[in-house]
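Box 3.1 A note on notation
Throughout this textbook, protein chains are presented in two layers. The first layer is the amino acid sequence; the second is a token string describing backbone geometry. Keep the layers aligned when reading.
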Amino acid sequence: MALEKAAQIAFALQYVHSVRAIAPGIGGVKLWRKYKKEFDGCHILGRDCFVDMLDEYDLKVRLRKRRPKTTDCSHGLPTYPNIVKEFIPTAPNQLWVSDITYIEMMREDGKHSFCYLSLISIVR
């Protein structure tokens, strides 16, 4: 029985490598569905064993970190000139400057998230 299981795993590994040669980013769930659909009725690995095999042979696709979208100057909408570039304030409260950025944070569950930080500076 152990020999049959080893043969099934070797076959599944070969299948995973052949699919990943064509589509390297395909995830475990899609791989399992393709494998099951293509070889249904044969002595195939179960879903959990298939996932364990992907994990054991380090074949899981890494999740991409979600990056917040920042400044996009190619939107085609009107943009406004920088009117403070050459401006020299002569009195208090004539110039306010602001910016927004994001800070990446690690949550307790190990996942990444982010929050925004907005700053306003008043030139006095």
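The helical segments are 2-22, 28-39, 47-56. The longest helix spans residues 2-22.
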